[in-house]
Automatic annotation (TrEMBL):
InterPro entries: CalX-like_sf, HmuY. Residues 1-21 form the signal peptide. It holds the Pfam family HmuY. This is HmuY protein. Keywords: Signal. Coiled coil: none annotated.
Length: 464
């Protein structure tokens, strides 16, 4: 009898589950679109990346076919694509689990152009179940552009609140550039000062030792440093991280002195590689002419590597990975305005005390590159009403954290959902003086978004 009852209960439970499944609303169509309708290709660049986005991650590897229509420029001799095109058509495969794809356009060597050349791209087909969306065309202009505005889905990548990428946005060029947060460890300043930053997007920390010989530093030098060099709830010190406000004169690693003997060894905790702690390193940095020389090794190693880093005036920083050496992170300092990332900032322990803390979905402006920004509350002006005439009433700031985490709310007590703050937007003045108004549309499931892929909208207010 008990067996019959158990079988009957299982049958009823299964029927209920099936009924719930039948009642669940179907997922919306998964559409593929171009990231931007227009993009510039500056004369000093050799390569441009054209991006595609899906409404949500692809269930299986998805082939998207794109037609090319060059004007004033010929495929094969003056430009090529990767993947290669055949009969002015190429195929991009978006991997399963990803919501983005791209292809690259490369200029031919020793190419002289008038700036009127263009390539028009059209999405023709997408493999089922993905459908072709509404933003099906995109134009690459072989000259600089000043965008009138667009909408972008930022490619923070997988990981949700610990999304794997930092995303740099260039409003005037309708462009975004994603780079893995854990792809670098040190950034060498290209300005007049000799400064080196650690990777705040992975929660990195640094501790100076009273030694100048790397070979004399061992694992014994790390004793007692775990609560100092590992950022967690209530642990860590601002002495061991770069200034949360972005002041380049307040880095955890002191100014690199012209006197070699003054440059000490530092222990670096590079932070996390995703959810995995990276190995600790010992480093020493000295000047070499107008650049730097880096000496580095893992804590227990008895020999060390040496790497020269030159200053590049086109960049805010030149970057180094302990594992790979020199690497590319930020675009040129004139080619980005805003960075969305995970960041080391600060959290209050009390009214008078705070500690370093890593924040997800944090936004910096390119303050070292001359970008300024302002927060505008909708009680002052609505996003739609904000115009060139309103700029004179706007107080722009050069602070790196003007936007910070102010644009969003986190999930709170009593079921308060996370979401974009709709009572504000931002006005950003790029280094050239072009002014854009920017608002965040969503960033998490509570407000219709996907964590790691926030959507933004921006419009040109004033063109220089």
């Amino acid at each position: 009898m008990n067996k019959v009852r158990s079988l009957l209960a299982l049958f009823i439970f299964s029927m209920a589950i099936n009924a719930c499944k039948q009642d669940d609303p179907p997922l919306p169509d998964n559409l593929v679109n171009f990231d931007a309708a227009e993009q510039g290709f500056d004369s000093d660049k050799t390569e441009a990346e054209i991006k595609l986005t899906l409404t949500r991650s692809a269930e299986t590897a998805t082939a998207v076919t794109i037609d090319l229509a060059p004007s004033g420029i010929a495929y094969g001799t003056q430009f090529t694509t990767n993947p290669a095109a055949t009969n002015n058509s190429l195929t991009v495969t978006i991997p399963a689990g990803s919501s983005t794809g791209s292809f690259k356009v490369t200029k031919g060597a020793n190419l002289f152009l008038s700036g009127k050349e263009t390539i028009n791209f059209t999405i023709k087909t997408a493999a089922s179940p993905v459908l072709v969306g509404t933003k099906t065309t995109s134009t690459l202009k072989f000259s600089s552009i000043v965008s009138t505005g667009s909408a972008l889905k930022l490619n923070g990548g997988e990981g949700g609140s610990s999304a794997i990428n930092s995303v740099f946005v260039d409003f005037s060029n309708n462009a975004q550039s994603s780079v893995a947060r854990n792809s670098w460890d040190l950034g060498f300043y290209s300005g007049t000062d000799f400064r080196v930053v650690i990777n705040g997007t992975t929660g990195a920390t640094a501790k100076e030792l009273p030694k100048t010989d790397l070979t004399q530093v061992t694992a014994a030098d790390t004793v007692g440093l775990r609560n100092i060099l590992i950022l967690s709830q209530g642990t860590g010190s601002f002495d061991n991280v770069d200034d949360p406000e972005g002041d380049i004169t307040k880095t955890a690693i002191k100014t690199i002195s012209a006197t070699d003997a003054e440059n000490k060894v530092y222990i670096i905790n590079p932070g996390n590689s995703g959810t995995t702690a990276k190995a600790w390193y010992k480093v020493r940095i000295v000047r070499k002419g107008t650049g730097y020389t880096l000496q580095y090794a893992q804590i227990a190693e008895t020999t060390f590597k040496t790497l020269d880093v030159t200053k590049d005036s086109k960049l805010n920083f030149s970057y180094v990975s302990f594992e790979k050496g020199l690497t590319t992170v930020e675009p040129a300092k004139t080619d980005w305005d805003m960075e969305w990332t995970l960041a080391t900032y600060k959290a209050a322990l009390s009214a008078t005390e705070s500690v370093p803390y890593t924040y997800a979905d944090y936004v910096f402006i390119n303050h070292l590159g001359g970008v300024e920004a302002a927060e505008v509350l909708t009680t002052t002006s609505t996003y739609d009403a904000y115009s060139e005439a309103t700029i004179t009433t706007t107080t722009f700031k050069k602070d790196r954290n003007v936007i910070g985490s102010n644009w969003r709310t986190s999930a709170g007590p009593n079921g308060v959902p996370a979401g974009v703050k709709t009572d504000r937007f931002y006005v950003i003045k790029d280094a050239a003086g072009n002014v854009y108004k920017v608002r965040f549309m969503n960033y998490t499931s509570s407000d219709g978004g996907v964590r790691g892929y926030p959507n933004i909208e921006y419009k040109l207010v004033k063109k220089v």
